[in-house]
Design brief:
Elements lengths: L1 H14 L2 H22 L12
Helix pairs in contact: 1-2
């Protein structure tokens, strides 16, 4: 999720498309939250951990 967000951020910056930039920021934030929750030992969805 974080990698997808970074790719969207880069594409949004290169092609000057604001919606890609916004979606990239959202994807990075969601990925970071899932990563932090998984590293703290909380189950994320049906998984016992999230990488």
């Amino acid at each position: 999720m974080i990698i997808l967000g970074v790719i969207l951020l880069v594409l949004g910056a290169i092609f000057n498309v604001p919606i890609l930039w916004t979606l990239g920021i959202i994807a990075v934030i969601i990925g970071a939250v899932l990563w932090i929750a998984g590293s703290m030992g909380h189950s994320v969805g049906p998984r016992a951990h999230y990488w």
